[in-house]
Protein: Lipoprotein
Organism: Flavobacterium limi
Amino acid sequence: MKKLFTQSFITLLFLTFLGCSSEDSEKNPDEETPTLKTSIKINKVTVTQMSFKDSYGAAWDETNGPDVEIRIRDAYDLKSLKGPSVHNDVSPAQMPLVWENITPLVLPFSSMFFVELMDNDGLYSDLMGPVYFVVSDYTSGPNAYPTTITVTRTTLSTLTTTVKLDVTWE
Ligand SMILES: [Ca+2]
Ligand SMILES: [Ca+2]
């Protein structure tokens, strides 16, 4: 009788131990749940290629180089950012043009965005070249969430613009 009692007690201890250990393995406090990315932030804009002549073959400004500024906007103009500075009288030797430390523009995934290059002429500016991209094109596949996005577009058959965006995903 005493032997049976001892065996039962040991079995009970063993089962209790098993119960505890299986409970412990269910929770791992160090495990992080992956955060879902929902927006893209543009931190830097680099223009690596642009046309120094308009579609008629004329210079953007008669006596000196174009005064280049950038604007980023969505299709409805609801979210837009104008570059903080103008690169004045740009010559080909000054390429590429860089806009750094811009107020980051946070864009939702669902939209299409335009990056416009303007020759600032005061009240009216010449649109030198727009490029555009769709954010959701960069959120899937093997190269999802890249740190740089490069877009090239040729408008009016002669004006080729290439823009590189340094981005972070949040
Ligand atoms: Ca001009
Ligand atoms: Ca100028």
About this structure: The chain has one helix and nine strands. The pocket of calcium ion (ligand 1) is lined by residues 60-61, 119, 121, 126 (CB under 6 Å). Residues 2-26 form the longest helix (25 residues).
